[in-house]
Queue: 2 jobs
Job 1
Amino acid sequence: MVKPVGDEPEVTVFAWGIVLDPLGYRLAGYRVDDQRGRITSPLVELDMTARTAVTESGRVYTLRGDPDPDAAAEIAKAHMRRAGLTAADVALVDVEDVVLAFAPKPTGPWN
């Protein structure tokens, strides 16, 4: 069971990746403290310089190591079974594409 954000505001994950489902981009990875797979609530921020991701729930995830699409796919499969989703509903996505999706939009008189 996932602890409330107030009880566990930060989690570190390894062997992680990003998946897209009907609710948005989610982080899928293994917790460093107990090696259990985790799929997050939708992301609202991804900062690869700081190696952090923030979810809609407000939890902050620290990203350890490089993305691991194979590990993320295994976690995504379990998520699909629990949520009643199909392969058409869930996709692994390139981390760089997600970084671009969350990049600040330019502002100014030319926009």
Note: Residues 16 and 54 are 14 Å apart (CA to CA).
Job 2
Amino acid sequence: MEAVWVKHPATAPEIMSRLAGQQEWKEQTIRTMLTRLVKKNVLSCRTNSKLQSYIPLLHRDQVVRTLSRGFFAKILKKASVLVELIRSTELSPDDIESLRQILLEKQKGKKS
């Protein structure tokens, strides 16, 4: 989704180019994911001269909120899953600081 939010409309080749070096997904995997996101009404797809262009139907904030309330909220109930997710995700210094602040707030809330 990030590859589409950056600049849209975006064709599948443009999205693949943006993901190059970030993800080691094959072309078919990316195309399958795009198709699923269209079916879930997260992306819109327009065909123009054999090229499909994708446009996000949801803002980034909406998707993050939805994920945090749904799927991830259920999975991340166990701290070990959360820890592994953090370990396996590349985080910027700003991301790390945000996580640190969230954990500090959580810790203060539990002491009250």
Note: The chain has two domains: 2-56, 77-112.
